[in-house]
Amino acid sequence: MSITLEEEIFGLAVNPFTNHPEMVRRYTLKNAKGMSVSVIQLGAIIQSVRLPDAYEKVDDVCLGFNDIASYVATKAAYIGGTLGRVANRVANGEYTANDTKIQVTKNIKDQFQLHGGFVGFDSVIWEVAQKTPDGVIFRHVSPHGHEGYPGQLTCFITYQLDNENRLWVRFEATTDRSTVVNISNHAYFNLAGHGAGAKGLSEHTVEIAADKIVDTDESQIPTGKLLDVEDTVYDLRLPVLIGDRLRQFENKPIQGYDNCFVVNGGELVKSVTKVAKIVHPPSCRVLEVWTNQPGMQFYTANNMPDEKAGANPIIGKECTHYVRHGSFCVETEKFPDSMNHPEFPSINLEPGEKYRHEVLYWFKVEESWKCCCNP
Question: Which of 331, 333, 341, 357 does the annotation list as catalytic?
């Protein structure tokens, strides 16, 4: 059986460039193994990822909403959204290129830019460039000067699903003048189910093939140094239980993981390699992350509402509560603030060049102990 593609109307969203409402469609890819992935035109958001566990119970393992209004109301959490033009932080909202100072918008406390500014790629309505037998290709043309960035940037995002439960995401971009590009995706996952919360996340193990992380200050702006993970909570080279590790952050300024891990030797590589593996042993679900990028931001939803402290939860699909430390993100990227650090992998893009970023989310069921632990 080949992949099937279903298209339906998801809702109305206001186009930030025209201020007019536009229809937003949802595209659902289904494979022969009972896995499905839904993406929507708003923000090219990954809205749902459903797959069976070792006992054939199908759960949605990706946080999201069934309506546009909830995505708009929780925009600050970037749930499922595309990050761009430049994912992560830009210190002081500025950088210098060819001896010219370029100022971009500062959408965080008027101090720095995060994830592309006030109207990032998560907020735009992507056109459907092509529907393919196994996927969909979205397109967006970011105008010259948008959020302060030079150049008209033409971007494509390809989502493809196969019968091996592999979700391929390809970001491509070209420009008509010298600019900077670092696109990513901010899907939140919980392999126990999108609403399994902090208890579900604590049961996961995580392994990241990184000897170093990008060192940052208290605002999470890179210092320019790379820190060795040896003998720190950031050493995830062997699998560790997330619940155990999160307890070690209790007296730290940032209570949880929100770090760019240096993968692939800190270089852009020709083909995707495996950089991370997250496992939920009770369900036997596994997510492997493969990419050609030099960095991966690993985030444990530290900024989601803390219900224990009385915060109102974010209400997601099926009326579930999305809370602090109740999910994780694996955002493949180049390093934060790279345009201000010549020693970091370059995010410069010139006319005639093509930005290419590939990431593969490979979902598996590893039933190593199912034989003797039937429920």
Answer: 331
Q: What is the pLDDT of residues 88-127, one digit of tens each?
A: 999 999 999 999 999 999 999 999 999 999 999 999 999 9
Q: Do residues 156 and 121 touch, judged by C-beta distance below 8 A?
A: no
Q: Which are the contacts of 164, defined by CB distance < 8 A and separation ≥ 6?
A: 362
The CA distance from 117 to 45, in Å, is 17
Cis peptide before 85 (omega within 30 of 0): yes
- The reply to whether 357 belongs to the active site is no
Q: Which residue has the tokens 């320019």?
A: 224
Q: Among candidates 203, 204, 202, 222, which has minimal Cα distance to 212?
A: 222
Query: Looking at residue 367, what is its pLDDT?
Result: 82
Query: What burial class does residue 361 get, using C-beta atoms within 10 Å of its C-beta: 0-12 exposed, 13-18 middle, 19+ buried?
Result: buried
| Angle ∠(227,231,235) on CA atoms, nearest 5 | 70
> Residue 236: is its pLDDT beyond 70?
yes
Residue 249 has pLDDT above 50, yes or no: yes
* Whether 2 contacts 134, CB under 8 Å: yes
Nearest to 94 by CA among 81, 83, 84, 105: 105
From the centroid of its chain, how far is CA 284? 23
Measured in degrees and rounded to the nearest 5, phi and psi for residue 184 equal: -150, -175
- Active-site residue identified among 186, 204, 280, 325: 186
Reply yes or no on whether 280 is catalytic. Answer: no
Q: Within 13 Å, how many C-alpha atoms sit on residue 249's CB side?
A: 17
Considering the entire predicted model, what is its pTM? 0.97
Which of helix, strand or coil describes residue 264?
A: helix
User: What type of residue is 274?
Assistant: K
Could you tell me the pLDDT band of residue 371, with boundaries at 50, 70 and 90?
Answer: very low
Gap between the Cα atoms of 84 and 116, Å rounded:
5
